[in-house]
Task: inverse folding
């Protein structure tokens, strides 16, 4: 966050000395690149600055906020990331923004792999043992705080009526659904999720998504459609009750303890695959 700017006799005409606070992790990462890290940091800032809109444009307010605090700084310490976003079209139906009027834009918050898990676990240990919907509660806390910083309204994937998170994600990230319904990410495979979204009254400057390679199009044999003992996923969609019956039954131990066999059969994004305990946690929530 830039606090003050001044020019000294030693600064070149195109440079200015500023007193600033930066995210400690970000600075450490630059430092770790070795001598000349300050130049590399300045270059990164210059590159980013060239993409910012002119001051005074409708999206400046949020760009300024993003620049000042960087949304990631509120989220990254919890293993959460900004997944992308977009502006709603003129006249397009949108949920209310912070003012109560239809939002102008949305930023999606989520996770790649199980990055939030240790942070969530540490928080959970400080909560009452029987807290209801702990993951939801934790996410609402973190994302609610980020929303407050940016003057946004936070929403959750479990808010009723359900908000179209996957449609938003397809638009924001250029992803397509796998045969399992889960969106296929070119890097994370099936091992990612959405934990909330920030709705704004103004347009947010976000780069449009690059067209993502849809790995399912080039997947021979589609192993994700062959591992389920009850064939719950098929061309006809997801047989929710068949899956539930199996997961809850005596022979459902492998799914209960290690997660969905179909999801685990996908050969992509395996380095992001959730550990067994994380999968067991999600499966318990699904099958309760
Ligand atoms: C209701 C729901 C379910 C229901 C689906 C019932 C039904 N037939 O619609 C059930 C309980 C079956 C379900 C299961 C799962 N779900 Co679910 N689910 C949702 C939820 C809360 C609402 C969906 C909805 O109706 N949205 C409203 C409509 C208007 O929005 P939409 O974007 O158009 O909805 C799309 C989805 O509904 C999708 N869809 C329809 N049926 C199914 C079934 C499955 C299994 C999935 C993944 C998607 C899916 O198609 C729509 C078209 O885009 C969303 C969160 C959200 N708010 O979207 C998560 C969500 C779709 N689920 C998700 C996941 C991961 C799962 C599970 C795979 C695992 C889990 N929860 O741990 C399981 C599958 C269980 C297994 N065998 O492993 C993720 C998908 C993430 C991703 N990377 O794409 C979401 C986005 C939640 C999140 N926090 O990220 N889910
Ligand atoms: S196994 Fe193949 S078709 Fe199935 S989700 Fe993975 S890439 Fe897509
Ligand atoms: S959780 Fe088990 S029963 Fe359900 S779809 Fe996956 S493999 Fe099939």
Result:
């Amino acid at each position: 966050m830039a606090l003050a700017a001044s020019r000294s006799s030693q600064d070149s005409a195109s440079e200015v000395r500023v007193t600033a606070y930066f995210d400690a992790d970000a600075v450490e990462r630059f430092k770790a690149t070795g001598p000349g890290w300050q130049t590399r940091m300045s270059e990164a800032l210059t590159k980013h600055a060239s993409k910012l809109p002119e001051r005074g444009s409708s999206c400046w307010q949020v760009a300024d906020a993003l620049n000042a605090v960087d949304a990631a700084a509120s989220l990254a310490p919890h293993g959460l990331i900004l997944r992308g976003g977009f502006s709603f079209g003129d006249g397009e139906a949108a949920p209310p923004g912070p003012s109560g009027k239809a939002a102008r834009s949305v930023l999606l918050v989520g996770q790649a792999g199980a990055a939030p898990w240790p942070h969530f676990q540490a928080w959970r240990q400080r909560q009452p043992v029987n807290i209801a919907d702990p993951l939801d509660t934790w996410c609402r806390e973190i994302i609610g705080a980020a929303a407050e910083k940016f003057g946004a309204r936070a929403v959750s994937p479990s808010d009723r009526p359900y908000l179209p998170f996957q449609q938003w994600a397809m638009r924001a990230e250029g992803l397509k659904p796998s045969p399992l319904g889960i969106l296929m990410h070119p890097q994370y495979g099936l091992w990612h999720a959405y934990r909330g979204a920030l709705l704004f009254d103004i347009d947010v400057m976000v780069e449009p998504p690059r067209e993502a390679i849809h790995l399912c199009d080039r997947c021979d044999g589609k192993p994700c459609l062959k591992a389920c003992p009850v064939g719950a996923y098929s061309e006809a969609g997801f047989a929710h009750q068949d899956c539930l019956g199996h997961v809850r039954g005596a022979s459902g131990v492998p799914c209960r303890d290690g997660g969905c066999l179909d999801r685990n059969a996908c050969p992509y994004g395996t380095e992001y695959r959730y550990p067994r305990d994380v999968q067991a946690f999600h499966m318990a929530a699904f099958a309760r």
Remarks:
- The CA atoms of residues 85 and 243 lie 33 Å apart.
- DSSP finds eleven helices and ten strands in the chain.
